[in-house]
Please model this.
Amino acid sequence: METLKSAHFMAEKKYERFGVLPKLVFSSEEIERLKKNYLKLSRETHPDRNFSNKTDSESSEDLMSELNRDYETLIHAHGRVTHLIQEYKQKFVKSGLTVDVKKSIPSFAVEGLEMLEVAPSDPTRTAFSRQLETEVLKLVTRLAVLAKTLDSMGFEDSSNFADLRSRFLEFVTLFEEFSYARSLMDRLGLDTYPYEERFSIEFGGLS
Model:
């Protein structure tokens, strides 16, 4: 499992300048540390500083773009989780572990598609919308609990890999259901902001 450990180390190396690790869930203290270090680094890296030549200025622009990209990845909860899912999949694959997630249709999907053909004022569509909103809140709660477990397990202890993989696959499946539910809410004309905000509160970061 040396490859997995090495990949995890590289992830730490990439984000350690912000004073945080690329975890699924950030505490409020980690968010504040991230913001503080980002502001410090952006002042040091900004192209408007006095550079001795054009090459230094162009190099600074590249560094600033990379800094902004990494910051945006970490500060936005949904984007961070999406990014880390892909990163962890690559780690498992490089270590010879399969991470194929079986595509499953959420229980609410079929009825949701039927509701798209029903008038917005129809009581059945209203009732389904309330049920969908409740389901999304449940998904966020389950995701947050599982994410904290994954963060606490880490990738260093080889005895945890089988359990880690199992929990990771469960997390990915739930996250895909959550993403599908948000998309369905959009199509039904429902306000997704409260649920995106709840996700951000649970995971730490911006919506």
In short: Residues 1-11 have pLDDT under 50 and may be disordered. The radius of gyration is 20 Å.
